[in-house]
């Protein structure tokens, strides 16, 4: 995925093609229909222009004129506030707090396991980590059951964060089983969104090919 384009201001996202944090950033940018140049980084060597602007040399990094952001949560919240339509967070402060808590829990419980996979030389999760992730996702099934999207009838930053994990389940060797009907329906709904399909790199497409 070289670019997500329309008529708006061009920004640049430094992204890795299989990085889960990069993926959720790309989903949000695609959902907002923003004109964005995506610099795909493969291998250990980083481009000098990234190292010049990001003291942590981390990916994803978003460059918007003189502003440089290098944490995926900061990136997605900035993009949602900078381009408010369509909104990806509720207006009500109580609901916003609940959504932020959900983001924290997903990042702490699911993303940390995904990061272990991405850093693994063997390219796989241990049976213990697979069991932990599977059980954690299934324990959240109510969040997928009573609304169209996770915790809401509106697509949100939480969905942009959940979707990359669920997309990678076959790669992780995780089968949610026969009790996961609401989650399967949720995946069908989210994976068919144009913003999600537009966000996928070739390597991410191959995860479910």
UniProtKB/TrEMBL annotation:
Residues 92-209 form the GST C-terminal domain. One of its GO terms (cellular component) is cytoplasm. Residues 9-87 form the GST N-terminal domain. PROSITE patterns: GST_CTER, GST_NTER. Transmembrane segments: none annotated. Signal peptide: none annotated. PANTHER family: GLUTATHIONE S-TRANSFERASE OMEGA, PTHR43968. This is GST N-terminal domain-containing protein. It comes from marine metagenome.
